[in-house]
Each structure stands twice: as structure tokens, then as C-alpha cells.
Specification:
Two copies of one chain form a homodimer. Chain A has about 150 residues and is mainly alpha-helical. Helices cover about 70% and strands about 0% of the residues of chain A. Chain A is elongated, with a radius of gyration of 16 Å.
């Protein structure tokens, strides 16, 4: 796990990946893939929530937190390239166009998410439900912060 | 990374997770989430392929391989629960109904995928493009093996 955490902690990685990968993926596929990444994240968040609300399953929480950390470290910035500001082909998007004009702010929010994901994975590694609960609350705040600002309700 | 590899190598984890998580997720959401998991995997496979075909980007390959390994270790079996054999709600699926009748065979294929994902992550960690190329070929075979048998062209 610490390797992923290290990757994530070096905040610049998302931007580096964005530069090299966005050229290769069609805009409609970028939208498809980013929705997939967040949907997959949502499933893993749900598993952790279920564990915190019910019987704590340390192995499941660990796998789910690892998955979220790997998503956060996968260079999602590459999926917000030119031409992905609005629906294209058969891909709808709930992104607000402002996201593409506020690079510094988006970078900060993405960094907060990555930091919180790394902390969640570390907490999950400990097997301590109280630590996970706290880290889960923190990452939830980072999701909400970005959604409130850059996701329209559709 | 070795922690994820360890999780994955303990092949039983997918089945354990399946039992505890499938009850909590609606069938249409299971289909949505599994398609998201495979779509996100496809994006990460594409990044590795682009690196092997063009200029090798060790950091990107490492992040992508970690993401694939985390998906493979996330307990996808939980997303093939009862009621997900065919389209439901607004979710289509390309799964063949046979998948739900051939548990042992599916378990073997899922285990092959997880083993290959762990090997790919290990190869990516080494930074050696030749090792990654070989491991990438291997995991591609495990994808194809399952698609050939259990995915219809739709």
C-alpha cells in the first residue's frame, strides 16, 4: 500500500499523466472512462459505509480502500481533456464547464481527494474501524467539495 | 504494492467479498458497477499499451497496473449476484447466462485474472518495459479467455 500512497502523495503525478494520456483517448471515451472511475469508486465507498454501519469486515474495507486509492492515483486529470466539457457522441456528462477554467482550484480539490484516499487506505490497513470511520468522513468531504462546485445535478 | 498482491494472491477473497456485499447492492447497480470496473480497467490497459507501443512512461504504467490490480482485488464476484443475468432497469449487460451456472470455471478465470494483475503490477514496479510487455500479454490472455466464454457481442 505504501507505494500507492507515495505515488499519490507526489501530487504532480495527475498532471503529468494528463499531459501524456489525453491525446490518445477520444473525448467521448474520456467521459465514459471518468464516469466509470467515479462509479467504481462509489461502489467501493458503499462497501466501506456498509462495513461501518454494520459488521466491520476488515478485508473488504482494505480491498475497497486500496481500490479507491488506486483510482485517485490513476491520473484522472487525463480524462478531462478538450472536447469533454459537454455531452459528445452517446456520452452525457454532469461536469460544469467552470471546471475547465479553474485549473488551480480543480488541482487543489483533486490533491485533497488523493491525500484523503491515501489516508483512508492507511487507516484500512490498520484494521481499526474508528480510524477508518474518521478517514471515511474526510474523503467524503473531498468528494462533496468537488461535486458542489463542479458537478451539475442531471 | 506487495500488500495488494498478497490480498489478490489469497484467491478466496473474491468469494468472501461476494457473499457479504451482493445483498446490499441492487441488481441494476451491480451491473452498472461491474461495467464501470471493466471500463476503468480497459482505460488502464490502454495506457499501458500506449506506453509499450510508444515512449515508455514508468510512472504511468505503475499507476495503471496498480489500478488494474486493485480492481482485480476488489471482489468483483459480488457484482454478479442473482438478478444480474440479463438487462434490468436501464442497465444492459453483455454477460452470457452460462456464467451463472459455471461457478468453478468462472472462479478459475477470475483467479487467473487476479494472478496476472498482481504479476503485471510487480513487473510495472520493476520499471522494465520487457517484463511489463510479457506480463501485459499474459493478462490480456486472461481477459480474452473470459470474454470468449462468457461475454456476448452486443
Amino acid at each position: 500500500m505504501h507505494k500507492i500512497a507515495t505515488l499519490i502523495a507526489s501530487g504532480a503525478i495527475a498532471l503529468t499523466l494528463a499531459a501524456s494520456a489525453s491525446a490518445q483517448v477520444k473525448p467521448e471515451d474520456q467521459i465514459k472512462y471518468r464516469k466509470a472511475a467515479y462509479s467504481f469508486t462509489s461502489w467501493n465507498m458503499g462497501k466501506i459505509k456498509a462495513s461501518l454501519d454494520g459488521t466491520y469486515d476488515a478485508a473488504q474495507v482494505k480491498a475497497a480502500a486500496n481500490a479507491i486509492a488506486a483510482v485517485a492515483g490513476s491520473g484522472l486529470g487525463a480524462l478531462f481533456g478538450p472536447g469533454t466539457e459537454k455531452a459528445i457522441g452517446d456520452q452525457k456528462t454532469a461536469v460544469k464547464p467552470e471546471l475547465f477554467q479553474k485549473g488551480a482550484e480543480v488541482g487543489k480539490l483533486a490533491g485533497d481527494f488523493a491525500t484523503a484516499a491515501a489516508a483512508l487506505a492507511k487507516a484500512a490497513e490498520s484494521g481499526d474501524a474508528a480510524q477508518v470511520k474518521s478517514a471515511f468522513g474526510q474523503i467524503g468531504q473531498t468528494c462533496k467539495a468537488c461535486h458542489d462546485q463542479f458537478k451539475s445535478r442531471n
